[in-house]
Every structure is written in structure tokens, then in C-alpha cells.
Amino acid sequence: MNRGEIESPAGGRTLDLEPKISSPRTKRFLVKTDRHLVGLLGIARYLSTDQVNRLLRPGRHESVGRRRLFALAGLGPNAFSPAYLRRVRFRGADATWLDLWALTKAGIPLANEQLGFRVRQLQNHAGEEFLEHFMVLTELFVRISAPYLHGNVRPSALPFHWNPTDTELPWAQYDSRAGKFRQRRLVPDAILELPSVRRRFFVECEMGTHSIVAASDEKTGATLSKVERYDEFFAGYAAASDRLTFYRKSYPDQWPAEVLFLVRKIRRRDAVNAAIENWKKGRTGCVVLARAVTVEDAVSDLSHLLPPPTAATAQTNTTDRKRAVDRLPVLDKADHELLVRFFNDALRKLIAARLELKRYGLPELSLPDGHVELKSFLKRSKPSNGNTSHA
After folding, report:
1. Interatomic CA distance for residues 116 and 96, integer angstroms
2. How many domains does the chain have?
3. Run of H or E including 327
4. What's the confidence (pLDDT) of residue 331?
5. Same domain, 17 and 37
6. Do 165 and 300 fall within a single domain?
7. Is residue 316 part of a domain?
8. Is the bond preceding residue 164 a cis peptide, omega within 30 degrees?
9. pLDDT of 385
């Protein structure tokens, strides 16, 4: 039996899936870590080289992950074509050049497949200031995801939902000068949902570049101005007749919600929280729950609300087993044997052709894309008489 063949129902041959021929082309097949990376980018949209390594290759030298990222982006001697990733370089505040990675058009369908839903792309993704801002925001996602990924939880099975896309929260504000309501909108930097405890967090990444208290009503970017707008979103009525708030209209589940201002320094955190408490004094009907936190604060608080990684891993394993059983096709035994014979014969002839080309110093023939997945399919499929054939 040649390498790469699978056992037929009537045969007693053993499995040796991967041909042991060394070739740069054989390294161009996607492995599980690649697929997990594509899924993570489908959720987070951007990840730095360091963040990717901490999530998927903890403890490994960064050069290992960097080489694979370059290959997936179509760069270097082992480049994929088409590329699944694109490289975005920018200079950080400390003048250090950093690489961020995002999906290409070819990577988006694969992310959809890995996650089980359609990936939305960001509308605004230009400029160094935006990219640095986004990397700080994504650090929260990285910190709360890492324990689960290290426990072999798939990206699609993470016990929380992270949405950093341009989600608009519509609301209306009464303009006393014009004597009418004007339509407004809030656009959080990210929305974090914890289904296990039915909680929702609107995350605002504060880089410390604007004031905490607005100098005028026109400076809507100031922190307290955002707090006021969120308060009107939570408390204001979209339909006064049935007392339907803007928040309840957007989120009928009525999960308790909180606004987190993500800051980088403890001094900034304390200043923002003091300003929020001062703003609340003397106000009646204040509904919004808002506070400033560092990434470390947020991770600590959220870890008490999220299920432990061991529980999530057990749930993932159970779900994987159920999905594997559900996906097993029912085939006639003769049809299954025919497919197995065809696969083995085709693979054997391809491997022989590769060896012959190599012997004459000619370019090697690559194995067809999907041959690994087809082998796995044949191993898992069941003849309809209930006698499962084992590859």
C-alpha cells in the first residue's frame, strides 16, 4: 500500500495519510491553526503579530508565527496563492513599526465557514491613529479569548460575542431651539455580549487624546458627552405611548447593559470615574451604568462572569462529537468501497508521478487541494447497512 491511501471496508491496510515527500508546495495546505487564525480575524478584524502568537502559539518564538503569517499573506518562499491575509504596517506612538493582519477577499469565505456566520468588514480602516486605537481595543478581546483557545476551544465556540464593527445605535434628542426632535446615533467601538449571564457591554476605547469634560456642547467626543448620550439612549423613549426605550427597541432581549471606557493608564481611569460620579450628582432619572477600566480591570471583572475555560472546553468537545455524528453521511456499502478504491488509486498514481518528475529534476506536481479533507470524509462516512468501515 502506498503512502496516503486509506483502508477499504474489505481490506486490512493501515492508514498513512500524508505523503512524506518534502516540497515547498506541500506546506501550502491550511492546517488547524491557520483556520483558527482566519476565524479569529473574522471576529477581531485586526490582530498584531504579537497578539496572534499569544493566542495560537504561546511560548513559541515569534519568528515561527511571523513566517506563517507572511506565507498566508502571500509573502515569502512558501506563499499561499491566493493569499488569505493582508499585512497592514503602521508606525505606533513610540515610532516603532508594527504589523497588523486582516482578511483578504479570499479569506472572508473561509472565515464565514469557520465561524458559521457572515463576517462584516469595518467601514473605516485607514490611518495610523485608527490602527493604534484598534490594536488597544483588540487587546481586551485577546486577553479574554486566550484561556479558552489555549484550552482547545474553537473560535466559533468562544463563550462570548465580540462585535467591533460599525454598529449604529439610533436615538433622538429634543432640540429646544428648533422645537423638534433630531435623530442621533451612537457608534460604540465594540459590543461585548455574555450569553451565559445575559449581559451586554458597550466598549469605548479612550486613548486619552481628548478632554474628559467637553469645553462646549459642540465637542461631542469628550467622555462625559458620550455618557450623556448613552444615558439618553438607555432612558429616552422611542415610543412614549408604550414606554419603549431606544435601548429596548434596538435590543428586545432587555439584557442589562453597561458602558466601559477602556483606558490605558490608572490615572486616566480614576479621573474619568471621578468625573462620572460628579456628573451623576443632582441628576434625577439617570439610568446609564458607565465606568472607566484598564484592560487588566476589564479582564479581571469579566473573568468572574464568563464560564471557566475547563467548562467551555468540555462543552466544545461534546458539541464537536455531536456535530461529527450529525455530519456522517449514509452511503451504500458498494458506493463507499468504490469511492475508497478510486481515492487510493488516484493518490497512488499522483505520488508516482511526483517521484518520477523529481527523479528527472522537473517541477514537482502538487497534490489536489482538498485531498486531506476527502480522506477524512471517507473515513467518517457510514455504509447504509450500519457497518461502519474504518480507514
Report:
1. 37
2. 3
3. helix 309-327
4. 64
5. no
6. yes
7. no
8. no
9. 52
The residue with cell 458506493 is 335
Which residue from 29, 24, 20, 10 is spatially nearest to 374, judged by alpha carbons?
A: 29
183 and 262 belong to one structural domain: yes
pTM of the predicted model, to two decimals?
A: 0.71
pLDDT digits (tens, 9 = 90+) for 161-215: 999 977 888 767 666 666 666 777 888 999 999 999 999 999 999 876 566 665 5
Q: Do 102 and 15 reside in the same domain of the chain?
A: no
Pull the grid cell for residue 383. Answer: 455504509
Range 84-98 burial, b when 16+ CB lie within 10 A, else e: bbbbbebeeeeeeeb
Contact 40, 145 (CB under 8 A): yes
Comparing C-alpha atoms, which of 364, 360, 334 is closest to residue 350? 364
**pLDDT value, residue 136:** 87
Domain boundary among 272, 306, 340: 306
**Domain containing 375: what range?**
1-24+328-391
Q: How would you class 197 by CB atoms within 10 Å of its CB: exposed for 0-12, middle for 13-18, buried for 19 or more?
A: middle
Report how far apart the first and last C-alpha atoms of the chain are (Å, whole number): 13
The phi, psi pair for 355, rounded to 5°, reads: -65, -40
On whether the CB atoms of residues 169 and 180 are closer than 8 A, the answer is no
Instruction: Supply the pLDDT for residue 275.
Output: 92
- Residues 37 and 90 reside in one and the same domain: yes
Identify the domain boundary among 154, 182, 215. 154
Q: Enumerate the H helices of 31-80 as residue ranges.
A: 32-44, 49-56, 62-72
Q: Which residues of the chain are modeled with pLDDT < 70? A: 1-27, 93, 122-129, 171, 173-181, 208-221, 239-241, 311-331, 364, 381-391
Three-state secondary-structure class, residue 260: strand
Q: Which three cell numbers stand for residue 370?
A: 482538498
Question: Do 130 and 164 fall into the same domain?
Answer: no
